[in-house]
Amino acid sequence: MKRQDFYFDLPEALIAQQPAKERRDSRLLVLQGDGTVKDARFPDILDFIEANDLLVFNNTRVIPARLFGQKATGGKIELLIERIINDTTVLTHIRSSRSPKPGTVLNIENAFEVEVIGREEALFVVKVINNNHTALELIESHGHMPLPPYIERQQEGQEDSAADKERYQTVYSEKPGAVAAPTAGLHFDNDIMQAIKNKGADIGFVTLHVGAGTFKPVQVDDISEHVMHSEYLEVDAPLIEQIEQCRARGGRVIAVGTTSVRSLESAAKFSAGKLQPYRGETDIFITPGYQFQVVDVLLTNFHLPESTLIMLVSALAGYEQTMNAYRHAVEQQYRFFSYGDAMLVFPPK
To answer: Which reaction does it catalyse (predicted)?
Structure first.
């Protein structure tokens, strides 16, 4: 298929710049198995969850990965941490007037210093120097939440707010390492999480540390030629057991977010026959024609035109059904992207 097949006209006014007043205040578009769509509110998701189901959430925690500073010459720089390698070293994007060379020392937030020690393609390897705190501790203390590029207040030079520090994070986030939120989970509050359990459904967790590559556009015309970014994930033994129990009782595996889909399907991809735990990298690229091994239903936000994520949704729901649902969402003025509304996706009957 061609990249242009996944284009749709999105008015800029529909790109959500702020979260809803309360997490559960979002709207919910339900794309049903017969291709019809239903307009609902997010708490209505409970009507579509059955007692035997298993909902799988991504418990990654967004780190405040944007940091500002300067070179010894006084030139301004901006870092966007891509990955924490160890207690002293990170892999990062660096924005500056001139790319710093290995050996360059950078002053970060007037609080600590780092040294550029190498390159990995477009990214820089940076090490904290002369400091008793770990890289993660320094990032947590001095960094800013890495709001997506389409949130305009960031482009206008405004910093993240106190509200962003709370709302650009799921209520069940646990393992720090992401530089972008698994946004389908942002709609859940503690009451809805409890209501799911009260219905008798099970809840499980994967970990996928979302990288900045999630915003990388598809630039080739033939999507089969796109090189997918790589991200670290963990699918552990307790979740595998929950999936097996779900299957045994006739339930469905409902993935909360595309990152949960990528985690579960990656574990299946790397298993020889029977689903096994997996920890490591994945660059899985799910497009129409893909045969799902684990996921039955998907909850997700609305994604960018021509993005790898709308391609993933199309793989589960069907291409025509997905594009029709997106056209409906635009007509009905749903809110798009990270702080936007949600979509519950069932595969074709």
So the answer is: 7-aminomethyl-7-carbaguanosine(34) in tRNA + S-adenosyl-L-methionine = epoxyqueuosine(34) in tRNA + adenine + L-methionine + 2 H(+)
